[in-house]
UniProtKB/TrEMBL annotation:
Domain of life, source organism: Bacteria
Domain HD-GYP: 139-335
Species classification: Bacteria, Pseudomonadati, Pseudomonadota, Betaproteobacteria, Burkholderiales
Protein name, entry field: HD-GYP domain-containing protein
Annotated Low complexity bias: 66-81
Residues annotated as transmembrane: none
SUPFAM superfamilies: HD-domain/PDEase-like (SSF109604)
Positions of region (Disordered): 62-81
Length: 414
């Protein structure tokens, strides 16, 4: 029997079914477990969460005296309603949203790490537990897509597998929104992105984290991860059909050269086509044990060369519109000869984002950073070309667009 109780009535031995309030306020990323540790109970009481749901059929019930003393919230047999899909919220600037997104990215990493660890231990993957996280990511993307997407791109070698899932979730939400999907379909796309690489949780760690090119035998082992992930999600029994499909087919290619089934063209679902684009973009823009990530704008250019064989044209074009031709964090050369980093998109013009100039190629010296809105009629400078930071090796590009405070919250040192 499910009962809603004030958090003060929670006791060791109770089966915690759900928590009220925002997911970001919760001390745990998941629920549906018996409280056995005093430390966990102390975290809940100190978290500020006002009420929770317990299942008295699976654990300790409320003391009769406590139930009489606190009639509100009332005990009930009604289950808490599932978290509603994310709804469009008021748009915010990147500088404002990036601070909130930094907190969300850090907590998302904890949640996905725990999810992978559970799967590695053989525990069933409960996709429903991920929905509050998907909703929080979707809300951030709706307020300003560049903040969450760009921060999630900043990974270390050690946390790539976990943060890749968070990044692909955010990219899928943004792409779904660009394609005009409704809230329910967008939520499904986000969940599919979060769970698409679950099979890697059971891949051999020496192969998964190998700092170099895989041998043919090792690559054969890694190619099993879509099917293993699909089987794990199916056994869990709570994943949507969309999440199952993307997990199994995000490595399929339009020309039929992908795996595991060699699907081609219209044999691949829309969600799987979306998953393929989002998965590749985050992979090539992220630092890996064996290579540094490519610049975001350079990655878009390279992916454009692969479309038709690798990606669906319509999906890829929508993906570019969702990110911008020059995604946030891109290094660009201005017509004035200055170098700049892209700081924010202009939805009305993909070629006129806000940029921060910081270096003169003429004097070969750093200059005081200056923010330019290229869409303003008062701004005479324009982007002349993409630049690769592999040549320049600037170490502070992320700080220029995100700010040191947000990077610190995210766990990145500039």
């Amino acid at each position: 029997m499910l009962k809603k109780i004030p958090i003060e009535q929670l006791r060791l031995g109770m089966h915690l079914h759900a928590l009220e309030g925002s997911w970001l306020d919760h001390p745990f990323w998941k629920t549906k477990f018996v409280l056995r540790e005093q430390g966990d109970l102390d975290k809940l009481i100190a978290s500020g969460v006002q009420a929770c749901w317990i299942d008295s059929s699976k654990g300790r019930d409320v003391e009769p005296q406590a139930a009489k003393a606190a009639p509100t919230p009332t005990a009930t047999t009604a289950a808490p309603t599932p978290a509603a899909p994310a709804v469009l919220t008021q748009a915010t600037s990147l500088s404002h949203e990036v601070k909130r997104a930094a907190v969300l990215v850090a907590k998302s990493k904890q949640a996905v790490t725990a999810l992978f660890n559970d799967a590695r231990l053989g525990n069933a993957v409960d996709a429903e537990r991920c929905l509050p996280l998907v909703d929080e990511i979707a809300s951030s993307v709706y307020r300003n897509p560049s903040a969450m997407i760009s921060l999630a791109r900043l990974k270390t070698h050690d946390d790539y597998s976990y943060m890749h899932s968070v990044a692909v979730c955010a990219l899928m939400v943004s792409l779904a929104r660009q394609l005009g999907m409704d809230d329910t379909a967008t939520r499904d796309a986000g969940l599919a992105g979060l769970l698409h690489d679950m099979g890697k949780a059971v891949m051999p760690t020496d192969v998964l984290n190998k700092p170099g090119k895989l041998t043919d035998d090792e690559f054969k082992v890694m190619k099993a991860h879509p099917l293993r992930g699909y089987e794990m999600l199916r056994e869990g029994g709570t994943a949507t059909e969309g999440a199952l499909d993307v997990c199994l087919h995000h490595h399929e290619k339009i020309d039929g050269s992908g795996y595991p089934h060699g699907l081609r063209g219209e044999q691949i679902s829309l969600l799987a086509k979306m998953g393929a684009v989002c998965d590749v973009y985050d992979a090539i823009t992220s630092n890996r044990p064996y290579k540094n990530g490519w610049d975001p704008a350079e990655s878009i250019r390279k992916m454009a060369e692969w479309r038709g064989g690798h990606f669906d044209d319509v999906v890829f074009q929508a993906f570019v519109r969702s990110l911008g031709i020059y995604p946030v964090g891109s290094l660009v050369r201005m017509q004035s000869g200055r170098l700049a980093v892209v700081c924010e998109q202009n939805p009305e013009s993909l070629v006129s984002p806000k940029v921060k100039v910081f270096f003169s190629t003429r004097s070969q010296l750093h200059i005081p950073p200056e923010l330019l809105d290229l869409s303003s009629s008062a701004c005479s400078d324009r982007i002349a070309a993409r630049e690769s930071n592999a040549q320049w090796k600037f170490t502070h590009l992320e700080e220029l667009w995100a700010g040191p405070e947000s990077l610190k919250r995210h766990g990145v040192t500039a």
